[in-house]
Design goal:
CATH architecture: 3-Layer(aba) Sandwich
Strand content: 25-35%
Radius of gyration: 16 Å
Shape: globular
Number of strands: 10
Number of helices: 5
Length: about 190
């Protein structure tokens, strides 16, 4: 077992110069991390022109009282698949409790509940996810790819998407302007 194991409930931040432009300034809420791999939901970028009202209409759910909020770019894997990160005050049989700060749901039931005003107190919707195979995330972390920050509900639910990368670094006590694109070797 390496130190990087079992990061569910943390927030991954892409390091400057990580090498994959799809993840520049990425902020990923880690939901699953075990011996088989990892799954996280991107929370640092929004889909242009895609909103909750459009998504609800597309899946045949009445808009009801749901606000018309933007949809997050959850990651490059299965970008047509929807996920809801939400506070732990709402659960359904298919919900995955990630930590004491948030849960993950992927059913239409949570979207219906949000539209009816009966859903969780805090939530965000994304399309797609970031996934890693067995040992892949650990390898990327050793190669200056990612930083694992403490998971904070305030970052997920109270901070605008475009501010989450900087806000998470600051919450860790790190000034992101001092980060460099490469690590040294002693």
């Amino acid at each position: 077992m390496t130190e990087a194991r079992y990061l569910a409930g943390n927030i991954l931040l892409a390091m400057p110069g990580m090498g994959d432009p799809r993840f520049a300034h990425a902020v990923i809420a880690m939901c699953v991390h075990d011996e088989n791999g990892a799954l996280g939901i991107g929370i640092g970028a929004l889909h242009s022109g895609v909103s909750l009202h459009g998504l609800l209409t597309d899946v045949g759910i009445e808009i009801g009282v749901a606000p018309d909020v933007p949809i997050h770019v959850g990651g490059p894997v299965e970008p047509q698949r929807g996920f809801v990160l939400h506070s732990t005050d709402w659960e359904e049989p298919g919900s995955l409790p990630v930590s004491d700060q948030w849960s993950l749901s992927a059913s239409l039931d949570i979207l219906r509940a949000i539209a009816e005003g009966a859903g969780p107190a805090h939530w965000l919707v994304s399309l797609g996810y970031a996934g890693w195979g067995e040992g892949q995330l650990e390898s990327e972390m050793r190669q200056h790819g990612w930083y694992a920050a403490q998971g904070r509900a305030s970052i997920l639910f109270d901070t605008p998407a475009e501010s989450r990368w900087h806000a998470t670094w600051r919450a860790e006590g790190i000034d992101p302007s001092h980060l460099v694109a490469a690590t040294g070797r002693a």
